[in-house]
């Protein structure tokens, strides 16, 4: 009988994303009260804030709601377009400030930073070239370092940058270039296992190669057959999600057991937040998946 590894440094949680929530307000999404009730019922104790404005933004109200359900907040999330240069700094900082302020008030220590999309995830319109120029890479890396510094100084939070499909930080090549061009004291990574696999990357290899830069994990899997079709036909991320490209563990790739084992070996406390993209979805679909996923992760030792 094989012994289940003890993943005592991995703190498992879930996020509004796993309930089909992509926007602050959308009639196709479950109400926030139902999300909080069900994420607690599924056996998770940690959550992310999700899109700013989905959960209550008054810290006292939100604290009361999460405390009542035995939940705690691990991170907030912001979207940025820092490759566009200093001109976007003020508008970026205004958005970051709102989210960071609530994140800090909830006792969390991380701010997940997602780069802007080069392709519209609803309409498939090409918004920008998928490859950055050298000048844009410099804007992106210097901008993220500045963001890391100022978020730390102002709010006491660490930023973790999230490689994401249809953004400029996606493939292994882009992720490594980004890490090699940024200061580890200011910027680290939120490794999303599903997005990285979607873009052809190997999560275990990344953890083993750049372990000191892994500051946070998102756990998800992709369906390899759907992914092959998505790649073959150039399908944007939003429609790919509607096709079910992000699937319920353990039916997809990458296998999460070796990812979690590699993360445990880093010897640091790490959040591992389940994020199964499925926008839009039927309101009764998320809870059974969340419960099965929590059971699966327990079987992995998390």
Detailed description of the structure:
With 302 residues, this protein is an alpha/beta fold. The chain has a single domain (10-299), classed as Divalent-metal-dependent TIM barrel enzymes (TIM Barrel). 40% of the residues lie in helices and 16% in strands. It is built from 11 helices and 10 strands. It has helices at 32-41, 59-68, 89-105, 134-155, 172-180, 193-198, 203-209, 224-233, 237-242, 256-265, 286-299; strands at 10-14, 46-48, 72-80, 110-115, 158-161, 188-192, 214-219, 221-222, 246-247, 270-274. An 8-stranded parallel beta barrel has the order 1-2-3-4-5-6-7-10, surrounded by 4 helices. The protein has a two-stranded antiparallel ribbon with strand order 8-9. Helix 3 (89-105) packs parallel to helix 4 and helix 7 runs parallel beside helix 10. The longest helix has 22 residues, at 134-155. The protein is globular and about 50 Å long. The model has no long low-confidence stretch (mean pLDDT 96). Residues 36-299 form the Xylose isomerase-like TIM barrel domain. This is Xylose isomerase-like TIM barrel domain-containing protein.
In the predicted model, the low-confidence regions spanning at least 5 consecutive residues are none
Counted by DSSP, the helix tally is 11
Strand adjacency order, main sheet: 1-2-3-4-5-6-7-10
- The helix/strand class is alpha/beta
Oligomer: single chain
Percentage of helical residues? 40-55%
CATH topology: TIM Barrel
Rounded mean pLDDT score: 96
Rounded Rg = 18 Å
CATH architecture: Alpha-Beta Barrel
Q: Number of DSSP strands?
A: 10
Q: Give the end-to-end Cα distance, rounded to a whole number of Å.
A: 19 Å
| H/E series | EHEHEHEHEHEHHEEHHEHEH
CATH H-level superfamily title: Divalent-metal-dependent TIM barrel enzymes
- Domain unit count: 1
Q: Under the CATH scheme, which class?
A: Alpha Beta
Beta fraction of the residues? Answer: 15-25%
Largest sheet: 8 strands, parallel, barrel
* Basic shape: globular
């Amino acid at each position: 009988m094989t012994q289940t590894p003890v993943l005592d440094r991995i703190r498992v949680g879930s996020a509004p994303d796993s309930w089909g929530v992509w926007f602050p307000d959308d009639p196709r999404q479950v109400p926030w009260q139902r999300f909080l009730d069900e994420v607690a019922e599924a056996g998770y104790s940690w959550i992310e804030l999700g899109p700013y404005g989905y959960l209550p933004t008054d810290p006292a109200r939100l604290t009361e709601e999460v405390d009542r359900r035995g939940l705690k907040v691990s991170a907030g999330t912001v979207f940025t377009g820092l490759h566009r240069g200093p001109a976007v700094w003020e508008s970026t900082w205004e958005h970051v400030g709102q989210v960071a302020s609530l994140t800090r008030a909830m006792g969390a220590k991380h701010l997940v930073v997602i780069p802007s999309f080069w392709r519209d995830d609803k309409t498939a319109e090409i918004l920008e070239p998928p490859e950055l120029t050298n000048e844009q890479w410099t804007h992106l890396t210097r901008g993220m370092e500045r963001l890391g510094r100022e978020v730390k100084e102002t709010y006491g939070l660490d930023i973790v940058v999230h490689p994401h499909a249809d953004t400029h930080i996606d493939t292994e090549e882009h992720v490594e270039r980004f890490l090699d061009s940024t200061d580890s004291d200011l910027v680290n990574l939120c490794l999303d296992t599903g997005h990285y696999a979607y873009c052809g990357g190997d999560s275990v290899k990344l953890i083993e190669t750049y372990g000191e830069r892994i500051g946070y994990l998102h756990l998800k899997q992709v369906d390899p057959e759907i992914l092959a079709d998505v790649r073959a036909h150039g399908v944007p991320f939003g429609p790919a999600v509607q096709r079910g490209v992000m699937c319920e563990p353990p039916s997809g790739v990458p296998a999460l057991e070796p990812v979690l084992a590699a993360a445990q070996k880093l010897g640091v406390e790490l959040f591992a937040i389940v994020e199964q993209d499925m926008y839009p979805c039927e309101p009764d679909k998320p809870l059974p998946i969340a419960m099965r996923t929590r059971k699966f992760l327990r079987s992995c030792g998390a």
